[in-house]
């Protein structure tokens, strides 16, 4: 994936997980995590660090 693409749909997150894309999770305007995703569910995404982020609150984009 090209850098800067915002991941909103499950298909986008599936692609990022499958190809182990580097992502950036922005929480309240501040970058809180950079790296790969571990998983997701309809309400949240999980970073490799084990932290869960609510999908409605964060912006996830490719790096």
Structure in words:
By secondary structure, this protein is mainly β. It is 14% helix and 43% strand. The protein has 1 helix and 6 strands; from the N terminus they run H-E-E-E-E-E-E. Strands 2-1-6 form a 3-stranded antiparallel β-sheet, with no helix packed on it. It has a 3-stranded antiparallel β-sheet with strand order 3-4-5, with helices on one face. A hairpin with a 4-residue loop joins strand 4 (44-47) and strand 5. The model has no long low-confidence stretch (mean pLDDT 96).
Shape: globular
As residue ranges, the low-confidence spans are none
Helix content: 10-25%
Quaternary organisation of the protein chains: single chain
Largest sheet: 3 strands, antiparallel
Summarize the topology.
Layout: H1 10-18, E1 23-27, E2 30-35, E3 37-40, E4 44-47, E5 52-54, E6 58-62
Antiparallel strand pairs: 1-2, 1-6, 3-4, 4-5
Task: Give short descriptive properties of this protein.
three-stranded antiparallel beta sheet; 63 residues; 1 helix; mainly beta; 43% strand; single chain
Offer a quick outline of the entry:
The chain has one helix spanning 10-18; strands at 23-27, 30-35, 37-40, 44-47, 52-54, 58-62. The chain has 63 residues and is mainly beta.
């Amino acid at each position: 994936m090209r850098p800067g693409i915002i991941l909103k749909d499950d298909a986008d997150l599936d692609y990022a997980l499958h190809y182990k894309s580097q992502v950036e999770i922005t929480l309240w305007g501040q970058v809180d995590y950079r790296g790969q995703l571990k998983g997701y569910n309809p309400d949240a995404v999980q970073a490799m660090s084990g932290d869960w982020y609510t999908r409605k609150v964060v912006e996830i984009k490719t790096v």
